[in-house]
Amino acid sequence: MTKFSTKYHRKRDVFSPEYNSPTCSYACESGSRAWGFPSPDSDYDIRFKYMHERDWYLSVNESKDQISVMPNKLLDGMGWDFRKFLRLLYKSNSTTFEWLQSPIVYPENKSFTVPLRELTEKYFQPKRVMQHYLGIATGKLQRDFQGEKVNIKKYFYVLRPVLAAAYIVKYSSPPPVDFYELLPLIKDKPNICDEIIKLLKQKETAMESDEVMRVDILDRFVKNEMERCDNIAKTLPKKQMEWDDINLFYRKILNLV
Fold first, then answer.
1. Mean pLDDT along residues 197-222
2. Given the DSSP bridges, would you call strands 149-151 and 14-16 parallel, antiparallel or unpaired?
3. Are 151 and 144 in contact (CB under 8 A)?
4. Which of the chain's termini has less CB crowding within 10 Å, N or C?
5. In DSSP terms, which residues pair with 7 in a beta bridge?
6. Which 8-state DSSP code applies to residue 173?
């Protein structure tokens, strides 16, 4: 696994956290760069999973299981201990799926991530993740869409979770992280797609604080799609998950079986 040091390699846009222990098993880009619509002044949201020595996991007391690293204004690094990650995966936390599907990956120990990705398929709960995405969109609308203008990036902070929920409706699987991979969902709505593409073009050169006029056709699409997805989510069963597969993976990684 990759040893952690807080370094930024400009040519490869690589950040890797570094300590004597723990070690980094996986690091990826999150946020607007992973989603495919960064601003010229966007920072780098680096997310990573790390592991301690085995004895750390055999202690009676619980220890800190999250690391935050912000070496400068350009880099925002945050990582979870792999046991914390597995506990959140059991709950079908959407972040666990997003990290593992990020299109921008830095250090990766494939002997760890390949079986972990297989494990995620068993713990994906469509109802829970759909409700999470719809909750994000609802919160953004209530907070940021109160006037005639809106911060351009806020439009995508609503459109992305709405389309992610729509993806789950159609495929019952974790949605792709890259926003562009969600656009085929609306290929039968050319007017909506055209307006989104226009915003994406504007976003390429817009600074983080730039605003645009609200687009009525997009606002109506968001409202209707949220209602549709919410109605479908309410009909889905809530799964009762078992710990067996996660516990077995955990023990194998720690060489306890």
1. 93
2. unpaired
3. yes
4. C
5. 16
6. S
What residues have CB less than 8 Å from 112, skipping those under 6 apart? 1, 25, 26, 82, 253
Tell me the CATH number for domain 2-123: 3.30.460
pTM of the predicted model as reported, rounded to 2 decimal places: 0.88
Residue at token pair 């307006």: 195
1 and 25 Cβ atoms separated by less than 8 Å: yes
Which residue stretches of 26-151 are H helix?
32-35, 54-57, 82-90, 94-101, 110-123, 126-144
Distance CA 30, CA 110 (A): 19
The dihedral region occupied by 165, where left means phi > 0, alpha psi between -120 and 50, and beta the remainder, is alpha
Cα 182 from Cα 185, distance rounded (Å): 6
Q: For 203-215, what is each residue's pLDDT tens digit? A: 988 888 899 999 9
pLDDT tens readout for residues 44-100 = 999 999 999 999 998 899 899 999 988 777 889 999 999 999 999 999 999 999 999
> Quick one: pLDDT at residue 235?
97
Helices 216-235 and 152-171: crossing angle in degrees, nearest 10, is 40
Cα separation of 107 and 92, whole Å?
24
Question: Left, alpha or beta for 92 (phi > 0: left; psi -120 to 50: alpha)?
Answer: left
Helix, strand or coil, per DSSP, at residue 76: strand
Residue 75: predicted pLDDT? 86
